[in-house]
Amino acid sequence: MHFFNRSVFYFVLTMALAQALPAQCADMDADALSLESATEVAPESNGRTKIFVEGALGNASQRYQTDSKNIGRASLDFSHSAKLGQGYSAVISDRLDRVYPADAGADATINSLREAYLSWQPEGNNTVVEFGRINLRYGPGYGYNPTDFFRDGSLRNQTTVNPFALRENRLGTVMLRGQRLWSDGALSVAYSPKLASQPSSDSWSLDLGSTNNRNRGLIALSTQFSQRVSSQVLLYKEQDRSATLGSSLTALLSDAAVAHLEWSRGKEQDLLSRALALPGADVARNRFTGGVTYTTLGKLSVTTEYQYNGFALNQSDWAAVGAMPASQIAYLLEAQRLQELVSRKAYLIYVTQKSLWLKDLDLTAFLRVNAGDHSRLAWVELRHHWSKFDVALQFQQHMGRSSSEYGVLPDRRVIQMLGTYYF
Questions:
Q1: For residue 252, how many other CB atoms are within 10 A of its CB?
Q2: Of the candidates 108, 167, 161, which has an alpha carbon nearest to the alpha carbon of residue 348?
Q3: With b meaning 16 or more CB within 10 Å and e meaning fewer, what string describes 402-411?
Q4: Which of 147, 381, 387, 409 could form a disulfide with 246 if both were Cys (CB 3.0 to 4.6 A apart)?
Q5: Cis before 101 (ω within 30)
């Protein structure tokens, strides 16, 4: 069984490689230089409205109990954009989840108003002004984004561990944003005010206490130096804290390989002090992500990524916290809330294979590795597409010692089937 747990991910990866041609990809377009991680979205509809319903049934084997537990979910996902005339447009995006079983003390039904904002762009003008709840995503990293400054507190309900889906499904932040666009770049300025002090657990709350609990501002300069290289420089400032500088770079190394780098440096309390509400001085440290994506003519894409969080615990400190289970759980929960890297160093392998065996059968898989305690999270999905319907099989495995990041989690293994209908 131990061998099975360690090798499931590698078996699926090997099968995907066997289906792919080892030649280089020929027509990689400029989208490869996007400085936002790609997201998994519903198929394009003819209009500006996208609606889908999704149901999931599965089973989760437990680490601390002899019996497994059945799990289920029903979701309704809605998004709509509309032109209002004379340069005005509006966007709304909402998701409703009904989960079973609900977490202790949480409602089984959770609504997430992800976006709701107005946009104004005069005809023929390169200036854009937006106001409302906006899901502002920055950074090309796949599994960790040091320059994604508005991610903390934005997940009302976590229905997947896939990092792309997490970025898509989170709450936006209420802000006023202005952009100035030109042929090879853009300048963006955003201000997000404090609107509430505490998060809300109410099912239908806007939960402004999670996304707008302090005053924040961001300046971002995007530049595309050529068809092969693009970059961003960001300056982020929040209430009662020093400014944080960030930057990212994406470059085409060849017709088949894309590299991405992402870095930020700021001054704040370390993650353990924040999790346990301990007094302590702010310290200046770095966050970093770097990776390479290789794509073949056989539609296989493999990304390897190194991740670093200078504010997280190193291995010796994590071992010390492991002797205090309550502190360890508080640390993990705070990292999850902030969507922060738990360990000082980590690795990610992310694989997608289009048309695996069948034309409309896709494989997505990733492996997360904590470089300190060597615990691992493996996730695999096989998804078959029809014109308006998807069926998916998902497998998730947490591996590691009982005191490790993934070994301490109550779910040892999760298997579930999903069905998605697109209107």
A1: 18
A2: 161
A3: ebbbbbbeeb
A4: 147
A5: yes
Domains and CATH numbers, the chain: 2-422 (2.40.160.10)
Q: Which residues pair with 82 in a beta bridge?
A: 90
pLDDT of residue 33: 60
Tally the residues of the chain.
423
pTM of the model: 0.88
Q: Is the pLDDT of residue 303 over 70?
A: yes
**Rounded alpha-carbon distances, angstroms, from residue 133 to 38, 47, 161, 207:** 21, 22, 24, 11
> For 79, how many CA atoms within 13 A lie in the half-sphere containing its CB?
17
Q: What is the dihedral of CA 404, 407, 409, 414, to 10 degrees?
A: 150
Q: For a pLDDT cut of 70, what percent of the chain falls above it?
A: 89
**What is the reported pLDDT for 13?**
45
What is the rounded CA–CA span in Å between residue 377 and residue 342?
A: 13
Burial class (CB in 10 A: 0-12, 13-18, 19+), 208: buried
Give, rounded to a whole angstrom, the gap between the first and last alpha carbons of the chain. 42
pLDDT at 21 over 60: no
Tell me the per-residue pLDDT of 67-116, one tens digit each, with 9 for 90 and over: 999 999 999 999 999 999 889 999 999 999 999 998 877 889 999 999 99
Residue 265, burial from CB neighbour count under 10 angstroms (0-12, 13-18, 19+) = middle
The helix or strand, by DSSP H or E, that contains position 329, with its residue range, turns out to be helix 325-338
Name, in order, each residue with C-beta under 8 angstroms of 55's C-beta and a sequence gap of 6 or more: 72, 73, 74, 75, 418, 419
Cβ atoms < 10 Å from Cβ of 193: 15
Side chain identity at residue 96, one-letter code: L
Phi, psi of 72 (to 5 degrees): -160, 160
Residue 46 CB neighbour total at 10 angstroms? 5
